Amino acid sequence: MSAPAAGPLVLLECLVAGTTHREGLRAFEPQLQPNQPLALQREPDSSYDDWAVRVYTTGPDAFWLGYLPEGHNETVARMLDAGFPITARLTHKAWEEEWLHLEIEVLLAR
What GO annotations for molecular function exist for this entry (predicted)? Predict the structure, then answer.
């Protein structure tokens, strides 16, 4: 039996929801690069989704990109609430008319 693979465990592959509502994203988009690390933050007081999880860039000038999609976010939200070290990374980006299509992987550190 082989040893488990090193690196983080991919928990979820998904699109970032709500990018059309993020002011300034069109101007910020050139700074986004594949494999870029991203941060996740719970929004427990959201009036729209009990399991809301925001997706941000990392660093001192973190930019709010959008949300994990509703219906795919409960497990990640529960794990964040429990203190698990969960992050994300950008895997693909593309404009589709006025919508910035951001694909990410949600990661659990091993």
Answer: hydrolase activity, acting on acid anhydrides, in phosphorus-containing anhydrides; nucleic acid binding; zinc ion binding
Q: Are 91 and 101 in contact (CB under 8 A)?
A: no
Report the alpha-carbon distance of residue 16 to residue 14 in Å, rounded.
Answer: 7
Q: Given the structure tokens 């870029």, which residue do they identify?
A: 36
What burial class does residue 56 get, using C-beta atoms within 10 Å of its C-beta: 0-12 exposed, 13-18 middle, 19+ buried? Answer: middle
Could you tell me if 95 and 32 are in contact, meaning their C-beta atoms sit under 8 angstroms apart? no
DSSP H helices in the chain: 25-28, 74-81
Q: Where are the domains of the chain?
A: 9-102
pLDDT in tens, the chain (110 residues): 666 668 999 999 999 999 998 999 999 999 999 999 999 999 999 999 999 999 999 999 999 999 999 999 999 999 999 999 999 999 999 999 889 999 999 999 98
* CA distance linking residue 17 with residue 84, whole number of Å: 22
- 9-102: which CATH topology? Alpha-Beta Plaits (3.30.70)
